[in-house]
Amino acid sequence: xxxxxxxxxxxxxxxxxxxxxxxxxxxxxxxxxxxxxxxxxxxxxxxxxxxxxxxxxxxxxxxxxxx
Length: 67
What we know:
The chain is an alpha+beta fold. The protein has one domain (6-66). The chain contains 1 helix and 2 strands, in the order ββα. A two-stranded antiparallel sheet has the order 1-2. It is elongated and about 60 Å long.
């Protein structure tokens, strides 16, 4: 885990609008969206993910030792 207090997600979302026989693949509507994700809002999920990563790595080490 990084230990950062927040992350900033920036995404360009593209979607076709008003699609009909006259549109081309370039007829897209685009939107730029920025979302700030605070670590404090996701502490439980972060801890669960960390626990699963540790569990997975223990399985990998066990399999390697059996070979």
